[in-house]
């Protein structure tokens, strides 16, 4: 039952194209930024770590939280009537929460795949570029140690942070679902 | 003796509007039997929609008892009301209230998604409901691709897919032209006869009275004719 509702919520999310694309892109950018901040935080030299790096990491975490709450807020506020209608046809608060969790988690997953995909290809392109023999005078012996732009752990930590942020966003907004009365569905649209 | 489907006893309901107290329902007593086709009429602000909301559990009375198909609902929790709605009640709204991102058939199936039925069975039931409202050929259309009358027929199919005992409709023809309104009322009448579903229709259109088996008239929050 829960899986079916999650599946349907993904379908509904994909069909609300504008919202889906906007938030997926925002999440993708934010994820890449947060992952790169984690990268320098985890693998950077602690001796040379600046306050600015720590600040950037903190800002990216706070931005993620704000964006997650904003998304949950938009999903619930713009769909009040739809949620009220679902309550009228017998959906419980838990059913509605499942639908919203499904949509939010789907956007997170797609953003993560996009980030991973882009980073893998960027790494491949950069590695290929630097592995070519150089004809520039003085750079004939130039070589770099091939290393991905982002390591696996910063990406995994970023995904975990996003999932936690989404859950927090949903919990913050869940009271709105509880308070929404089915009678709202009867309001006439002007 | 006829089976009682809805019983209201001494229902009181008040609203506060800009500091004034408005008495929407004043000591309402009403019994509706199974299979009746009830038309609730009255001027704007007489309390007919409030009466429908209280009968259907969408709104709770300040005082009094509401019994729907043997279950007392006036103090029921939201969870229990959801359960009763899912099993026993169907709704048809003036604005159709279809979910814009779902096709006609998905809108109908949505009622059963939280349940335990298999997807194939849900689809079969939705197709059967669409057939009843004669709209099978539009099953894959989104609501924005349907006319007002077609949207309302989808809404009716959604209201009957779970075979409810009672169907509540608030101004179901309010947004339709005369011909579409006639078709919708004929359809509701037919469903009332075929399925035995108790119908409670709120309307201000006197032309719809002929479809009902019983007329309830309201004025100033009271039933003046039943």
Description of the structure:
Chain A is mainly alpha-helical. Chain A has one domain (2-185). Chain A is built from 6 helices and no strands. Chain A has helices at residues 2-15, 17-43, 51-77, 80-88, 93-131, 152-179. In chain A, α2 (17-43) packs across α5 and α3 (51-77) packs parallel to α6. Chain A starts with a helix and ends in an 11-residue tail after the last helix. Chain B is α/β, with parallel strands linked by helices and 226 residues long. Chain B contains 6 helices and 10 strands; from the N terminus they run βββαββαβαααβαβββ. Chain B has helices at residues 48-56, 78-88, 104-109, 119-132, 148-160, 178-195, and strands spanning 4-17, 20-33, 37-41, 63-68, 71-72, 89-92, 166-170, 198-202, 214-219, 222-225.
- Overall mean pLDDT of chain A stands at 81
Describe the global form of chain A.
elongated
Query: What class do helices, strands and sheet pairing of chain A give?
Result: mainly alpha
Number of helices of chain A: 6
Summary?
The complex is a heterodimer of chains A (190) and B (226). Chain A is built from 6 helices and no strands.
Characteristic key phrases:
heterodimer, A: 190 residues, mainly alpha, 6 helices, 0% strand, elongated, B: alpha/beta, 31% helix, 29% strand, globular
